[in-house]
Amino acid sequence: xxxxxxxxxxxxxxxxxxxxxxxxxxxxxxxxxxxxxxxxxxxxxxxxxxxxxxxxxxxxxxxxxxxxxxxxxxxxxxxxxxxxxxxxxxxxxxxxxxxxxxxxxxxxxxxxxxxxxxxxxxxxxxxxxxxxxxxxxxxxxxxxxxxxxxxxxxxxxxxxxxxxxxxxxxxxxxxxxxxxxxxxxxxxxxxxxxxxxxxxxxxxxxxxxxxxxxxxxxxxxxxxxxxxxxxxxxxxxxxxxxxxxxxxxxxxxxxxxxxxxxxxxxxxxxxxxxxxxxxxxxxxxxxxxxxxxxxxxxxxxxxxxxxxxxxxxxxxxxxxxxxxxxxxxxxxxxxxxxxxxxxxxxxxxxxxxxxxxxxxxxxxxxxxxxxxxxxxxxxxxxxxxxxxxxxxxxxxxxxxxxxxxxxxxxxxxxxxxxxxxxxxxxx
Length: 427
Ligand SMILES: [Zn+2]
Prior knowledge:
By secondary structure, the chain is an alpha/beta fold. The chain is built from twelve helices and 22 strands.
């Protein structure tokens, strides 16, 4: 029997770092020139900053270019201004989810679609998907689904179960799914519900959850492993930035250096930060033809590029830490920025609580304490002790004063898409 291939694209995945950087530099010059010559949006923005494409020669020159703010600059620009090909050459339109405003349309040409079709199976391979897998893609993205197909796996129609969770579970279990791709908070609900419907996931063939779109507390990952016998792996990206990084078998998040340049900037000043420092993820895509994405602020903060060290998995691409979330989805308490994932880390490791929680914001500006609503399990007897325990842990781990309100399991409602953790109660 032939030895199993180790990488989807061995040459690219294991390319020496110096060669990857040369490749980035060459592609950067191309995309910058293309964007300047063919789009009114980038020509205006480079001219305003006084930079010409010929000023961009090395990776270090990238910071001379202006940052593009997705909501304030890009989304409001007419599509024709940011399109680098005639509209007739557009073959595919995708959109962002609109979690921070109205959705934004992304337009791709035939060449872009081909590039995405090369990337999608490679991403899944790196995440541990193999041709004998049967996958259910519950995020609903056709290009993601095509990735599994290109890799040789079996996929279930995006429409199977008609968007109804119980039916999706029945169909998946009927055909013996081995991989689920979903938002992490919803993947947990899928597993809980499957158990409720009488399926024994731990004894079944499901072995991998690919989670994208939001972070997940470490203790939930461990719980998924222990309770259901399923491995959880992160995929970080967005519709506008495409995939930025995926988790390898060594649990490190490798970026895709041949396809994009990741920078971490200070979200307030826009200054580029050093390796290891946490800030906002800024991406420059090196492959698009129709929609150039250059120094694009993702709004995802709390991430860092990690100091380079070889990874035992053999992939040579640089690694990063997962962002904690969107800046707009964080709260400031006595000057300290707190993300829902910080709260989730505490909630997830408190066995008496359910998986849902909310951070309550009841006035504008800086808050004097963190207010959290969490769900207690029916078997809990001493509510006062649980409340006190949770308040103490939140205060200790997050370093801010905390106030907890406990509500019965199921009160906070089930998210239909990305979990809304911050609830604003004023104005
Ligand atoms: Zn690795």
